[in-house]
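Check my protein:
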Amino acid sequence: MILLISFLWGAYFSLLTSFSPSYIWFVFLRTMVGCGVSGHAQGLIIKTEFLPTKYRGYILPLSQVFWLAGSLLIIGLASVVIPTIGWRWLIRIASIPGIILIMAFKFIPESARFNVSTGNTQAALATLERIAKMNRSVMPEGRLVEPILEKRGRFADLLDAKYLRTTLQIWVIWLGISFAYYGVILASAELLERDLVCGSRSESEAVETAGVSEESQSPCRCHMFAPSDYRTMIISTIGEIALNPLNILGINFLGRRLSLSITMGCTALFFLLLNICTSSAGLIGFLFMLRALVAANFNTIYIYTAEVYPTTMRALGMGTSGSLCRIGAMVAPFISQVLMSASFLGALCLFSSVCVVCAISAFTLPIETKGRALQQIK
């Protein structure tokens, strides 16, 4: 239900955004879209609770393929739609898949684990019988018995002594990963639009070379991407799937904690490598690897967060982590679009330092979830 509401909310306000009469309305409506997007993570919770332990580390990272497909689609659409009919139509077209997907919700069953935790064993049994029928199997003998918990999803449970350290470290990691992820995306645009690589030009110099006529047409001093810039964005975005096979192997053989600490450490290294003066191909290569690494980070922390908490706390744990994720996303533009213009190396060092902190936090997480069955109750 939360997933359905979030899709309806996001699609509705996304369409309204395309009719924004002013910048203030645009910001407000996109904020509302963000509120809807925050509920999309519940889709991963449902998948996690249905998948057997031995398959979670393989199937969940494959979701990244569909995230990649959506990212490539929107970049391709932007390259065609924005120069011709404008950004408003881009938003309207981008809202269509979300509206269509709403109709698919009648085929998505509620989590049997959730139904059991609320005492609705009949609904849980119906779901399990449907699964058994699809798998041409039979239900095991016996009754489905589980104690009904009156208190579920309490914020205080996340800070209980058993999970306090885990929760705090997970929050740090989520904030840092989101900060790095959106920092890479926005930094890619800045590097292409303002030519800040190697500190060759500052923002003011870039604006001067843009010409007086362009300044008069664009009060915010934005510059349209050239076709080559869109190609670079597409190539770097494809990087999000490049390390997926290695990421899956790492998650399943090295474990969630060690795999995440390695990819976070490599992310920190590649942020610093962006400061190396190189060719356009070299820049694309660095951005490609950074997108691959930050995507691998997200893959792993999504899986870990969904696995580490019991059913009574899982959605709350993912929801609060998602809130920290949005904070990281909000901070990222101030570094990748403001600080980077003033001090390119300073911005890269800050991104790298945050990744190092996240790598240490991941390595020292108290619980490893590899091969661990999902916990039903606290």
About this structure: The chain has a mean pLDDT of 81. The longest helix spans residues 53-84. The chain has two domains: 2-108+157-363, 112-142.
